[in-house]
Design a protein that fits this description.
Rossmann fold, DUF459, SGNH_hydro_sf, two-stranded antiparallel sheet
Length: 362
């Protein structure tokens, strides 16, 4: 007969929980790993470092950066250590070769252009199955604009938005990024029906050609002439086949040095748009202006609420003020085909400044 096993007395002491020991690395190992990682990155991306250095404003800092990165790039090219990064960058479109492109020089704009009547083909009335092909291009402000525009038109299937905004670019430095060559490529390959172009915040510096030749020092009369030819060149590349270009003006900014370039670029763009019926100017600065019409970190929205209008850099718009822009930009886009009605659109150069410039909603 089996006897029942006696119960073992329970210990009053709590069971000891197994402690997990977190394995850590010494500070010396960590910093050595960081140094090695940095060296590997510098070696692999030496070509990108050269491009970034060349994009800096002219001065001794740029000279030192170009010389230093150039030495590193030549050494890594010698032993082909940067080939994997260069191949990947080319496949992903991160690195773009500047085409042999030069903007033509244009005459100064007539402050009072003659009244002309031009008949344009109507904007195609899009459908959800065949949406209007809209391209956004320009600097980081354009990139932010394009991203927000994509979100704003999610319930408008008649609009298809492609965003080609690129950080740290502009029209002044064709040696760093040639927007003329890029726009020529976009028009040829994407065939945009409407293009939104926005630059200026990075253009307060000397103007260079694609080969690095300095053609005009910032602040000189030659600078404005050269910059005008580049604005006009972007506009003219979008002429024909019923295309429309909306030149999106930069908002006023909190940095005085950048503000001077922004105001000059906005003024020239408005002047050049007046003589080009396919171009309209969208006035962002007015939409987000302060009480005095200039820069203000905080503005009062149409509903009476107050909003901080800029990010910490005083250049890029906040989400609330970008929404303010979208409230006017989206109707501008949809109005282009809603008002077409299947008939030709006739406009005059004298009236385009008022009829095509966005006004704040009351």
């Amino acid at each position: 007969m089996n006897q029942p096993r006696p119960n073992k007395p329970r210990s009053n002491q709590p069971r000891r929980r197994t402690r997990r020991v977190r394995r850590t690395q010494s500070a010396e190992t960590v910093w050595k790993g960081l140094v090695i990682s940095l060296i590997v990155f510098v070696v692999l991306a030496s070509g990108n470092m050269v491009a970034s250095a060349e994009g800096m404003p002219l001065g001794w800092q740029r000279s030192v950066a170009v010389a230093t990165s150039g030495v590193i790039d030549r050494l890594t090219n010698l032993v082909s250590l940067n080939r994997p990064y260069d191949w990947a960058a080319q496949q992903l479109g991160v690195e773009q070769k500047n085409a042999d492109f030069e903007f033509p020089v244009v005459a100064d704009a007539d402050p009072e252009p003659s009244v002309t009547t031009t008949t344009l083909p109507p904007v195609r009335v899009p459908t959800a199955a065949a949406p209007l092909n809209v391209v956004v291009a320009g600097d980081s402000t354009a990139k932010a604009l394009g991203d927000m525009l994509k979100s704003a038109v999610t319930e408008i299937p008649e609009l298809s938005i492609t965003n080609y905004g690129k950080v740290s670019t502009g029209l002044a430095r064709s040696d760093y990024f040639n927007w003329g060559a890029r726009m020529q490529e976009i028009v040829a390959t994407d065939a945009p029906e409407v293009t939104l172009f926005m630059v200026g915040a990075n253009d307060g510096q000397s103007i260079l050609e694609g080969d690095g030749t300095v053609v005009a020092q910032y602040g000189s009369a030659e600078w404005e002439e050269q910059y005008r030819s580049r604005i006009a060149g972007i506009m003219d590349l979008n002429q024909g086949n019923g295309r429309r270009l909306i030149w999106v003006g930069e908002p006023n900014v909190g940095n005085p040095a950048i503000q001077e370039a922004v105001q000059t670029g906005n003024r020239i763009a408005q002047e050049e748009a007046k003589s080009r019926p396919w171009v309209s100017y969208f006035d962002v600065a007015t939409l987000v202006a302060g009480p005095d019409g200039g820069f203000a970190d905080y503005i009062t929205l149409p509903d009476g609420s107050t909003a901080r209008c800029y990010a910490g850099d005083g250049v890029h718009l906040s989400v609330k003020c970008m929404n303010r822009v979208m409230e006017n930009l989206v109707p501008t886009l949809t109005g282009m085909y809603e008002s077409a009605g299947g008939s030709s659109t006739t406009t005059t150069a004298a009236t385009r400044a008022t009829t095509t410039t966005a006004k704040p909603k009351n």
